[in-house]
Amino acid sequence: LKALIALGRPAVGAARLMDALWGESEADRANRCLTTTLYRLRELLRAKDAIIYEGGQLVLNPRNCWVDVWVLERQLSVVEAAGQAACPDREALCRRYQETARLYRGDFLGTDQDYPWAEPLREGLRTRYLRILRDWGQCLQQDGRHEEAATVYHKGLEVNPLAEEFYCRLMSCLNTLGRRTEAVLLYRRCCAVLQNELGLTPAPETRSLYLSLRQAQTTPDGDSPGAACMYRYTVT
Prior knowledge:
By secondary structure, this protein is mainly alpha-helical. The chain is 63% helix and 4% strand. The protein has a three-stranded antiparallel beta sheet. A hairpin with a 2-residue loop joins strand 2 and strand 3. It is elongated.
């Protein structure tokens, strides 16, 4: 069932499915496994029409099945199209962004990392969602809603802690909100994560923003070292 959802949009060839699930088996044995497993799955779903198998192609029947991933994919497509409109209704667009965030519950089959055939869909959905969060945060920033934008960028870092662009954008929001100490802590977390995970250092523009924040901290208008932080950043 997981493989059908991951590979079967709009349909998946039986040969590809057998290769994904029983690639180490002989062709005849893989075909018997497919036939047996398909029968058992239909019994578990209690709906023989839930899976269509015709012309060497398998597909979940949309008349019988509701899949949250399909709903998310449709929503992503709608929001992407709305964001590309010449003069989008910004309030309506933000509501669409909010609905997308509600539908995204984390990585596709996030607890099943041992399935290489699930990775393309997992990565594709994550990338599209992060792009939506980036555009949403930018829209909020342009409207002067920096607190809300900061929350959106924080969501992005929860999805991908290695997304340096989100660190930079969140630091910018925190700076605008006068929370410079928090922005500095965020930069340190960015440095630690990039170094530990990728062996990299932040890009010049990220470091430039950090240096401007440190300079602002030394001025009378800078926030104090003990300023309260809304988000918690653990540096390891």
